[in-house]
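Long-time lurker, first post. I've been practising inverse folding by hand and with some scripts of my own, and I keep getting stuck on stretches where the structure tokens seem ambiguous. Below is the full token string for one chain I'm working on. Before anyone asks, I'm not after the true native sequence, just a reasonable design that respects the backbone. If someone could post their per-position residues I'd love to compare against what I wrote down in my notebook.
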């Protein structure tokens, strides 16, 4: 008998992975956490039934969430990661010798501890001396900082459950305040294809446009997320992701990456027409604020 993990992408469409072993299941005060082992994707974990990280494709997500902003401002010294309890984003950040301080505000300590146990390659740099973990709500955490970070990365779940507060105008305003005058904000920006994700994509863009001077969206291929087509937001006070792209400077760092490269950097901001149109039409509605 084969056991399958299924994630529904709509009422009539789902994605299945054959499970070799269900390694762990736990309900925390915030969410349900499950770890599985599989032939195709290796070990993977889900929160409230939604895919978060698989051993096989996490490099795509973590390359694109970190190296895009770092190739725009390689002088980043102070970074805040909100969410990201699996440690993949922090791992990529620790590869930059110039980064002095990495704060991570993760609401659920159990995600961190279980990823350290089951996904050590992803979580393996959380003990870097530059990293400080705060097991706090990111919404409250950013309120307490002003003019401090060069880069904030919102490595969140979808806007349901504990991640909902990370998709509000007030939260984006607090992030703006916590960033310095050259600050960049990267956010997990959902996906354009299935209705349920596309609605959130449009809302997030409309809200970020209210707050940041420069507000762009870039795409990447993510096999284990709905439709395989996922987005990050690049919002910024000063740097433009293409005009200020420091191609040579980043390449001189000599970082070996499996997904990101300088051509992908530029290409990822070229969006399909249907996505561009959805984003252009995104406008804030009073009840979203
Ligand atoms: N963050 C979750 C991205 C959204 C997943 N959504 C979904 N499967 N419906 C992953 C954290 C990686 N550090």
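-- Answer (accepted) --
I ran through it position by position. Result:
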């Amino acid at each position: 008998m084969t056991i399958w993990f299924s994630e529904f992408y709509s009422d009539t469409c789902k994605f299945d992975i054959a499970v070799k072993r269900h390694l762990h299941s736990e309900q925390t005060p915030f969410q349900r956490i499950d770890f599985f082992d599989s032939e195709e994707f290796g070990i993977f974990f889900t929160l409230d039934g939604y895919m978060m990280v698989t051993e096989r494709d996490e490099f795509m997500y973590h390359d694109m969430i970190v190296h895009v902003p770092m190739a725009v401002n390689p002088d980043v010294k102070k970074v805040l990661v909100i969410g990201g309890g699996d440690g993949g984003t922090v791992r990529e950040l620790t590869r930059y010798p110039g980064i002095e301080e990495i704060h991570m505000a993760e609401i659920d300590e159990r995600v961190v501890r279980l990823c350290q146990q089951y996904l050590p390659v992803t979580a393996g740099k959380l003990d870097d001396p530059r990293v400080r973990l705060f097991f706090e709500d990111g919404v409250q955490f950013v309120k307490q900082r002003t003019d401090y970070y060069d880069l904030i990365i919102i490595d969140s779940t979808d806007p349901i459950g504990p991640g909902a507060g990370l998709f509000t105008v007030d939260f984006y305003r607090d992030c703006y305040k916590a960033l310095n005058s050259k600050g960049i904000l990267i956010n997990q920006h959902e996906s354009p294809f299935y209705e349920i994700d596309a609605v959130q994509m449009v809302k997030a863009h409309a809200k970020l446009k209210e707050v940041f001077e420069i507000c762009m969206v870039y795409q990447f291929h993510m096999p284990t997320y709905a439709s395989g087509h996922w987005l990050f937001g690049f919002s910024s006070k000063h740097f433009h992701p293409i005009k200020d792209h420091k191609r040579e400077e980043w390449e001189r760092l000599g970082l070996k990456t499996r997904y990101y490269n300088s051509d992908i950097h530029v290409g990822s901001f070229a969006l399909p027409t249907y996505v561009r149109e959805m984003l252009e039409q995104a406008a804030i509605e009073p009840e979203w604020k």
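A couple of notes from the structure itself: The chain has two domains: 3-54, 58-288. The two ends are 48 Å apart (CA to CA). Happy to go over any region you disagree with.
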